[in-house]
UniProtKB/TrEMBL annotation:
Pfam families: ABC_tran (PF00005). The keyword Cell inner membrane does not apply. It comes from Leuconostoc falkenbergense. The keyword Manganese does not apply. Residues 1-195 form the ABC transporter domain. Keywords: ATP-binding, Nucleotide-binding, Transport. This is ATP-binding cassette domain-containing protein.
């Protein structure tokens, strides 16, 4: 999967110029760069939701229906409990029983989610919400998974658990994972394709 000659500008500001990126299918792809470097904007382009005026060639990138995209701003229904939110994600997929990641994600469900299972999403901390929504994304059956800073707000004990669940998508289910992060220290234990913007 590749993006070739990607460029985007906003008014007179040229944000990205002729960027070429190749994505690995057997390692997590980690996009790193300073605040405002254009990481989320590139993710939007890959996911097929913008930004307006961006140009570039997409090679081997599936249609948006086959892409799971967890945005940086967490979106959730505040009155649903964690259990109801997970059930909501589960209804969006069909083959969980075949997914090795789903089996491994039970670790997250049993250890991280069980204490908050009956809590409403609106009452969770920011990091807890992030964990629930990342878990939900991993339940979906897609070809490509995009996570924009999935460990933002997640503490140093839980972040490796969440990252292992995401890495399982690559290792066990042979999915393509693209992720942004500002935390290179959290990623040391994984085999990565690092992309600097
Ligand atoms: N629709 C838009 N109109 C104008 N400027 C925009 C628009 N979308 C993004 N930008 C600008 O483009 C720049 C890159 O934004 P982007 O969200 O991609 O950064 P980022 O690398 O993900 O940053 P961070 O690490 O802070 O999340 C920012 O300066 C942002 O203000």
């Amino acid at each position: 999967m590749e993006v070739k000659n990607y460029s985007v500008s906003f008014g007179s500001r040229q944000l990205s110029t002729n960027i070429n990126v190749s994505f690995s299918s057997n390692k997590m792809n980690i996009i790193m760069g300073a605040n405002g470097a254009g990481k989320s904007t590139l993710l939007d382009f890959i996911a097929g939701i913008g930004p307006e005026g961006a140009v570039g060639e997409k090679v081997g990138i599936p249609s948006y229906q086959k892409i799971a995209y967890q945005l940086q701003q967490v979106h959730f229904f505040p009155t649903l409990t964690v259990a109801q939110t997970v059930a909501f994600y589960s209804q969006l997929t069909t083959n969980q029983s075949n997914s090795k990641t789903y089996e491994n994600a039970k670790n997250v469900r049993n250890n991280l989610l069980s204490p908050i299972w009956n809590t409403k999403m609106g009452q969770l901390s920011g990091g807890e919400r992030q964990i629930v929504l990342t878990y939900g994304q991993c339940l979906l059956d897609k070809e490509v998974y995009i996570f924009d800073e999935p460990t933002s707000g997640v503490d140093e004990k839980n972040a490796p658990v969440v990252l292992s669940m995401i890495n399982d998508l690559v290792i066990n289910d042979h999915k393509i994972v693209i992720m942004t992060s500002h935390h290179s220290d959290q990623l040391k234990q994984f085999d990565l394709n690092l992309i600097a913007l």
